[in-house]
Amino acid sequence: MIEEKITLATLAIIALIALALIFQFVNPSFSEPFSELAILGPDMKLTGYPHEVSVGENFTLYLFVGNHEGHTMFYEVMVKLVNNQTTLSTSSPLNASVLATYYFIIMNNQNATKKIVLSIPYEGTNLRLVFELWAFSASSNSFYYKGISTYIWLNVTASKSV
Amino acid sequence: MKRKFILLSIFLLFIILSINIKILNAQNDNFLDQFEKAYTALYNAELNGGNITELYYKLNQSLAIYEEAQQYKQRNSTLYNELIDNATKILNEVMSNVANVEAQGIATTNNRILDFSLEMVSLVIAGILVYIYMPRITLYIWLKIHSKWKVVKK
Fold first, then answer.
1. Is residue A10 part of a domain?
2. Which stretches of chain B are DSSP H helices?
3. A63 domain-assigned
4. What is the pLDDT of residues B43-69, one digit of tens each?
5. What number is the average pLDDT over the span B89-111?
């Protein structure tokens, strides 16, 4: 009968509206939360990294950090210097002294680029300048290692005498 | 006597310098502790639906001043202290406003829940009304439309 068909169609429309409203209210996220870390060269590109520097010589790099964690994040980037024998791990940070520390506070789905000037305090060949990404946990009130790191190779020669 | 005086002066200078370095490091640690607290408050405000955009920019401004201060830590302690004070002032501003932002967020979230509940209740009532009255209304309209129809014998 026609009245039954019209009633069913109207109820179906109401059900669809209800589903749309529930979806909008719950607003589920389909993407895996993640963070990004990259080192850019002095021209803010993924090239032109310094390979040969002398002890104490200043060189410029850019740190790029991206936040897709679903909320505002407070990041710490630790810079460490290790030799080529050291293996990098995603589960634990390097057990090496910290050369420098940089902080970022970034809203969700945003990124930040920061100019950094570094100098290496001692000589060495095939050294790895490692950048580790740490994040602050509001629940534990401390920084934890995000398992993200990147590095550049460096040869550090004796300082140039004037 | 003179040698003793020089040694004593060097010793005192060393003590003063080490105390100064300790004070600067303590200021650094203190600022970062406060910054962590401000971030935690901001995080909670955001979690509760607060619009944290303005506070976020202030926190970033404070962090930028703190990082600028680090350049002067060894060279110019007066400027360093001034910059750390400025950064701390901005942090305090954030801390004093974050509770309001969080409260507004909670109120907005509660309103959203109330709106959603009302929409759902309205839809359920609409569904019940449609189920009860729609067949009658449909038949009534059908009859109105077809009331002037005449049955013709073929």
1. no
2. 2-47, 53-71, 77-146
3. yes
4. 999 999 999 999 999 999 999 999 999
5. 94
Chain segment B112-153, per-residue pLDDT in tens: 999 999 999 999 999 999 999 999 999 999 889 888 888 888
DSSP assignment of A125-162: EEEEEEEEEEEEETTTTEEEEEEEEEEEEEEEEPPPP-
A136, B36: Cβ pair inside 8 Å?
A: yes
The residue segments making up the domain with residue A106 are 34-157
Tokens describing residue A101: 């520390």
What band does B17 get if pLDDT is binned at 50, 70 and 90?
low
- Which residues does chain A have within 8 Å of residue B135's beta carbon, measured at their own beta carbons? 3-4, 7
Number of domains in chain A: 1
Residue at A133 is within a domain = yes
CATH number at residue A129: 2.60.40.10
CA distance A45 to chain B (A): 23
Asked whether residue A4 is assigned to any structural domain, the reply reads no
| Residue numbers of chain A with a pLDDT score lower than 70 | 160-162
From A3, A17, A104, residue closest to B134, measured CB to CB: A3
Residues of B in contact with A18 (CB under 8 A): 120, 123
Q: Report d(CA A24, CA A27) in Å as an integer.
A: 5
Q: What is the ipTM of this complex?
A: 0.82
